[in-house]
């Protein structure tokens, strides 16, 4: 998967060498995947499986989550969960919010900004579920 995450993409030849298959096999397999799954379906699946997404939904419903309990129920280590959730601060900073973690995890900041983030976050997810894939960014939005 690392090879697929490179900025410039990957050629069929390099991918074929890594997977030990021919170029026509890769093209055929990609066409089959394309016929069975849309980018929209893949995005929705990714979101539903994302720890960050699941944590944000739980925080939205109950204002905070118990990190130890959440990590155990999602079969990940406490440290892995903490690192993934800590990365949310990059997005939250655009809204002048911060992800607070101790034994509990919550989002803190100005109430208006928190409401704006919640609307943007869930609005984007609802739009994605309906086939609109544009991701949110505070710089593109207005209050």
UniProtKB/TrEMBL annotation:
Tagged with keyword Metal-binding: no
This protein's UniProt keywords: Transcription, Transcription regulation
Gene3D superfamilies, A to Z: Winged helix-like DNA-binding domain superfamily/Winged helix DNA-binding domain (1.10.10.10)
Mga helix-turn-helix domain location: 36-122
InterPro entries associated with the record: BglG_antiterminators (IPR050661), Mga_HTH (IPR007737), WH-like_DNA-bd_sf (IPR036388)
Listed name of the protein: Mga helix-turn-helix domain-containing protein
Provenance organism: Enterococcus saccharolyticus subsp. saccharolyticus ATCC 43076
């Amino acid at each position: 998967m690392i090879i697929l995450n490179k900025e410039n993409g990957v050629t069929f030849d390099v991918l074929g060498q890594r997977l030990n298959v021919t170029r026509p096999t890769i093209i055929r397999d990609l066409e089959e995947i394309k016929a069975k799954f849309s980018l929209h379906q893949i995005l929705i699946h990714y979101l539903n499986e994302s720890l960050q997404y699941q944590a944000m939904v739980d925080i939205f419903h109950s204002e905070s989550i118990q990190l130890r309990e959440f990590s155990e129920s999602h079969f990940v280590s406490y440290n892995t969960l903490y690192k993934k959730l800590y990365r949310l601060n990059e997005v939250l900073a655009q809204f002048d919010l911060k992800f607070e973690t101790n034994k509990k995890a919550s989002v803190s900041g100005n109430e208006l900004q928190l409401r704006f983030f919640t609307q943007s976050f869930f609005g984007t997810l609802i739009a994605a579920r309906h086939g609109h894939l544009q991701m949110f960014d505070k710089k593109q939005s207005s209050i």
